[in-house]
Amino acid sequence: MPTGSARGYKASSGQGRQRLLPKQGSMSKGGMLGKNQIVLCQNNIRSQAHMNRVVTHELIHAFDHCRAHVDWFTNVRHLACSEVRAANLSGDCSLVNEIFRLHFGLKQHHQTCVRDRAILSILAVRNISKEVAEKAVDDVFESCFNDHEPFGRIPHNKTYAKYAYRDFQNRDRYYSNI
């Protein structure tokens, strides 16, 4: 049930819902708070598109938590893998976002952005050195970058997101006659 609004976004409270709160501690835009809750920091969400990216990023972490039983607090490689996947699949590294950040590049630009964003996310939530974060990301990067579940592909834009949804709808179609 909506309890209020912040800059045009409806805030919800309760188990299993998203909540908009002022920035807390080291959390810059969003995070998982306990079980079945995603928290968004209202003073850092700039637009609906930005909120969509943050929610998608956090939902990928929630998906990983359910699917892979991630050990968030003691295994930095688990955290690194989820951060790689979230940066890759949420739109954090879209061309438009990178242009706004004044990051330009053509050769393997998306991979470089995903790696850098994953490292920054780890450093924001863990008290470890940059070298340890870089090693953890590098160790898991190839397999986690290529894991596109639950989308099946990287949804770079709305068109790719529609293709991913179409793929999801047709996922069992080719196996129904076996």
TrEMBL record:
Metal-binding found in the keyword field: yes
Documented EC number(s): 3.4.24.-
Record region (Disordered): 1-29
PANTHER family tied to this protein: MITOCHONDRIAL INNER MEMBRANE PROTEASE, MITOCHONDRIAL INNER MEMBRANE PROTEASE ATP23 HOMOLOG
Group of enzyme by EC: hydrolase
Gene that this polypeptide is encoded by: ATP23
Family indicated by similarity: Belongs to the peptidase M76 family.
Gene Ontology terms: cellular component: mitochondrion
GO BP terms in the entry: mitochondrial protein processing; mitochondrial proton-transporting ATP synthase complex assembly
Entry keywords, A to Z: Hydrolase, Metal-binding, Metalloprotease, Protease
GO function terms (MF aspect): metal ion binding; metalloendopeptidase activity
Protein's UniProt name: Mitochondrial inner membrane protease ATP23
